[in-house]
Amino acid sequence: MAKSIHETLTYPGTTVDAVAALAIDPEFRAAVASYQHAIRSSLAVSPAPGGNDVTFEYAHGTERVPSFAKKLVGEEIPIVQHEAWRGHAADVLITIPGKPGDMKGSITLAQNGDDVVQTVDLTVKVGIPLIGGKIEDLIAGLLAKAARAENRVGVKWLAGDRNA
After folding, report:
1. How far apart are CA 91 and CA 35, in angstroms?
2. What is the pLDDT confidence band of residue 13, given thresholds at 50, 70 and 90?
3. Of 52, 44, 109, whose CA–CA distance to 80 is shortest?
4. Is 157 in contact with 28 (CB distance < 8 Å)?
5. Domains located in the chain, CATH noted
């Protein structure tokens, strides 16, 4: 079984190049992690043919995680998000090191008049019998919230507010 996430987010009054540049900006990614109350984060960017390969690593505490899941993840949830940006689209692979399952999908950016529309499509798969579906739902919800949080910080960031 798998859980799908589809988020359509808008960045008003900007360009796809400006939004795409956020993916490789260490200060922006640190601001997103801080906004989401991550306990640590790092960003690595490597040039690749036609774009960049990005690895965004961050960790969340488990104080808001249901008890059935807390037993599986421990004291923190480390997340490794690999993005292969080629032009204005990225293939995405998100893993939680040492845990079964992954999140795969894509991010696309498109100009729509004066705005940029970002589409995030991910599929969450967790290979744990009996409770895998519950964990997929939990992770899907967290990833959807993370995408919306990144959008909120990005809109402010592009408007010049670096204190998001």
Report:
1. 24
2. very high
3. 44
4. yes
5. 3-158 (3.30.530.20)
Closest CA to 76 of 127, 44, 40, 103: 40
Beta-sheet strand order (sheet of 40-48): 3-11, 115-125, 102-112, 89-95, 76-86, 51-61, 40-48
Per-residue pLDDT at 138:
76
Q: How far is CA 106 from CA 83, 90, 109, 131, in A?
A: 8, 5, 10, 26
Q: Hey, what are 30's tokens?
A: 């640190």
From the list 85, 53, 79, 45, the residue with the least C-alpha distance to 65 is: 79
Of 79 and 121, the one with more pLDDT = 121
CA dihedral 17→25→162→12, nearest 10 degrees, is 20
pLDDT in tens, 71-102: 666 677 788 999 999 999 999 999 888 777 78
pTM more than 0.85: yes
pLDDT given at position 34: 93
Report the residue count for the chain.
164
